[in-house]
Amino acid sequence: MKREVINTNDGSTTIYLEKWDEHYHSKHGAIQEAYHVFIKNGLEHWCDLMDSKNPRILEIGFGTGLNAFITYLEHCKNSLTVSYHAVEAYPVNQQEVIRLNYVQQLQAHDFSEVFNLMHQSEWDIDLQIDSSFTLRKRRQLFETIDDGADFDLIYFDAFGARVQPELWDVAMFKRMYKALDNKGILVTYAAKGSVRRAMLEVGFIVEKLPGPPGKREMLRAVKK
Ligand SMILES: C[S@@+](CC[C@H](N)C(=O)[O-])C[C@H]1O[C@@H](n2cnc3c(N)ncnc32)[C@H](O)[C@@H]1O
Fold first, then answer.
1. 125-146: per-residue pLDDT in tens?
2. Helix runs in 85-188, H state only
3. Ligand 1 centroid, distance to 97 Cα (angstroms)
4. What is the pLDDT of residues 167-188, one digit of tens each?
5. Is the dihedral of CA 72, 74, 80, 85 positive or negative?
């Protein structure tokens, strides 16, 4: 499918899929959205709630690597020890990576090698980026995820239900529920009623939270 790197309203880049009229991030601001949904309401919330600095994270959709990179920056700032698995079946290519401006926009020039390494590293191995951050990129279809209680936090960042409804149904959230440890949480930018109902059906406790700029609501689901 044809992919195009474009700018969002906060100045950060994203990728646009013309055929589906779908973006990898909010067109109102990729970085803004990532911080609001996954860091503030996901990572920070879990660390506070569990009084822990050692989250095991599963990302659904490595994509541009933005979520992995900002999680890396947060681990540096807050002395976290992170194990990060990112699942992706259709990786971006090097031409696309060099057009992404996250290092500049985040003023993270000291970590530009980390961003490049995240993209250039091999799939399906544990990459020790530093002594307290391990990244495993998993080249895999979401539909085949079969982990059992190995994670504390899921960044559920699939394309929207409008274009991939099969990734937002009860079967998929059963996989996510199984992958989470007790009291583990899943955060997503989506807030659709059908998504919320699918989460409730598999046993999650679901909260609606204010969304990032340009979006009224988002969801956070907690494993009972
Ligand atoms: C919204 S984007 C992820 C954005 C990403 N989190 C980021 O920070 O850039 C959704 C991702 O899911 C991937 N994808 C779509 N369908 C998939 C599937 N069935 N299995 C695995 N990956 C899939 C796409 O290639 C895309 O990278």
1. 999 999 999 999 999 999 999 9
2. 94-99, 102-105, 112-120, 170-179
3. 15
4. 999 999 999 999 999 999 999 9
5. negative
